[in-house]
């Protein structure tokens, strides 16, 4: 990765990188080495991770390295401000992880952080959606994006909807049921 970055920086004059990784901080040792290499080489670059990072992986030392290496922003998939909904959708992070990450991120003035929330998860009540809104305020991130839930085949939160998806596939969309993202 470092060799590719060096080539792009020195030979192609690339100055911004977008990390497309669903769990960028999973191997924190390897990622810290990459960030330290960027810092040590004094590469004048910026980078972002709009695919998101997992909140439980955000630690104070990694936030410092992110900022020093040119990070300008990333997203955190929070999904819900309601603890019961987080467990139901099998989210690996809990409120304590989000709160701890937000505390570390408040120290950084250069990194723009957005929290992604989903409203209307299966069996979610209105008060649970309001929990998400209130939780977003308590985190005090730079941005909160609220999206209306759309059933996605294969997602753990929709495992009980197998028959609905099978009907959609067999009908090839002729049943009037199609993909719909109301926020668009």
Features:
7 helices; single chain; 184 residues; 41% helix; 5-stranded parallel β-sheet; alpha/beta; elongated; 18% strand
What does this structure look like?
Strands 1-2-3-4-5 form a five-stranded parallel beta sheet, with helices on one face. It starts with a helix and ends in a 13-residue tail after the last helix. Helix 2 (28-40) packs parallel to helix 3 (60-68). The radius of gyration is 19 Å and the shape is elongated. 41% of the residues lie in helices and 18% in strands. The chain contains seven helices and five strands. Strand 1 (16-18), helix 2 (28-40) and strand 2 (46-53) form a beta-alpha-beta unit. It has 184 residues and is of the alpha/beta class. The chain has helices spanning 2-12, 28-40, 60-68, 83-88, 95-106, 126-139, 162-171; strands spanning 16-18, 46-53, 71-79, 112-119, 143-148.
Secondary-structure map:
Elements: H1 2-12, E1 16-18, H2 28-40, E2 46-53, H3 60-68, E3 71-79, H4 83-88, H5 95-106, E4 112-119, H6 126-139, E5 143-148, H7 162-171
Parallel strand pairs: 1-2, 2-3, 3-4, 4-5
Helix pairs in contact: 2-3
Average pLDDT number:
87
Calculate Rg over CA atoms.
Answer: 19 Å
Number of strands: 5
Distance between the termini: 35 Å
Largest sheet, described in full? 5 strands, parallel
Strand order, main sheet: write it out.
1-2-3-4-5
Task: Return residue spans where pLDDT drops below 50 for at least 5 consecutive residues.
Answer: none
Q: Categorize the overall geometry.
A: elongated
Tell me the series of helices and strands, N- to C-terminal. Answer: HEHEHEHHEHEH
> Beta-strand percentage?
15-25%
């Amino acid at each position: 990765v470092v060799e590719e970055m060096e080539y792009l920086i020195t030979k192609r004059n690339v100055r911004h990188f977008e990390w497309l990784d669903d769990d960028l901080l999973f191997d924190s040792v390897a990622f810290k080495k990459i960030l330290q290499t960027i810092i040590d080489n004094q590469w004048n670059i910026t980078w972002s991770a709009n695919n998101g990072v997992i909140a439980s992986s955000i630690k104070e030392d990694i936030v410092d390295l992110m900022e020093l290496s040119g990070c300008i922003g990333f997203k955190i998939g929070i999904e819900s401000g309601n603890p019961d909904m987080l467990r139901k959708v099998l989210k690996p992070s809990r409120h304590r992880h989000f709160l701890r990450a937000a505390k570390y991120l408040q120290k950084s003035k250069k990194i723009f952080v957005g929290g992604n929330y989903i409203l209307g998860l299966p069996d979610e009540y209105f008060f649970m959606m309001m929990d998400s809104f209130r939780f977003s305020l308590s985190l005090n991130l730079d941005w909160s994006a609220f999206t209306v839930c759309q059933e996605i085949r294969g997602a753990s939160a929709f495992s009980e909807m197998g028959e609905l998806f099978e009907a959609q596939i067999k009908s090839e969309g002729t049943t009037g049921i199609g993909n719909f993202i109301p926020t668009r």
